[in-house]
Amino acid sequence: MVKLNVGGRMFRTSESTLRACGDFCARLLFGIGWDPTSLSTLDGEIPVDRDEDGVLFLDRDPDLFDWVLRFARTGEIQKDMPGALKAEFDFLLLSWPPCCQRCGVYFDTARNSDTSCRHHRFPWLEDVEISREDRACCPWPERSEKGCCKNCGTEICGRQVFKSYVRRYICCKGRIDEPGCRRCRHELPPDPDPSLEEPAGEKDVSFPFREEAEEVEAVEVQDPAQKRKEEQERRKAEAKAKREEEEQRRKEVAEKRQAEAQKAREEAEAKRKAQAEEAAKKKEEAEKARAEEAAKRKAEEEKKKQEQEAKRQEEAKKREEAEKARAEEAAKRKAEEEEKKKEAEARGQVHV
């Protein structure tokens, strides 16, 4: 689905429909000759911009663009503004069709009259209207005589509509109508009204070709309905083949995108797995480093405790030795005092 902002109106359409809207829209879709990341111009002529939501913006008439999309979908052209629509076709680099794609009626490129034939224009035949039927014969017989057309050399096979002031003839160059196929309306022509037919035995002198009516009807021609049916079947077959081709292309594109997405998912999964393994390895190394650091600190603390214990034991030993030395010194002094006391007592007795 493609989203476009045309003149302030939002349009949503498919890629195939947008590709059928001319080379300009195809270049918009596929980026041919245009950088979508910049606000440059297409081929240096057509400005391309984006709206505030980032949607592609075209400063064109949305009503005309709506008819361009309708033409791409159904082949129908709007009847009331052929000039403006033709200018829009030219702007979008879209070729103006020679005929209506729905009913096959050719467009009058001159647009000088609602009833003028593209190949046989007679200014003095203002009451001539081109028939919507498809017969390979000239539209204008000369008086009541049968023969060949002076313009194209085709055998004359005109038909008259009696009890009417409008003569209908068949163009040998193909069917034709205004831009937009206004008179055709994509419908079969109505059957003639039996009430308008002239009673048997009477003559209508207002039409000089009355005497040739039965001969005209006797000419073998291809059934217009059968030809239209064959043309519709051919177009349906072409459309079906085109749809199948488009479906095959879309299927291939979808399969390619699916394969690319699967590959991207696998690469992302492998990358995530590698990152997880790397993170686990780093975590394990960090845990090992922390364990080694804790063991080292514990060993150092044990060593310090042992050193402190040894130091305390040594200090206690020194205190014990000092206490022992003091006790020995005290005992020695006491012994000396006792000896001196005895000596003094002995000297006293001798003196007495």
UniProtKB/TrEMBL annotation:
Biased composition (Basic and acidic residues): 225-352
Limits of the Potassium channel tetramerisation-type BTB domain: 2-92
Region (Disordered): 213-352
Pfam families: BTB_2
GO annotation, biological process: protein homooligomerization
Domain of life (superkingdom): Eukaryota
PANTHER family, per the entry: GH08630P, POTASSIUM CHANNEL TETRAMERIZATION DOMAIN-CONTAINING
Name the UniProt record assigns to this protein: Reticulocyte-binding protein 2-like a
Phylogenetic placement of the source organism: Eukaryota, Sar, Alveolata, Dinophyceae, Suessiales
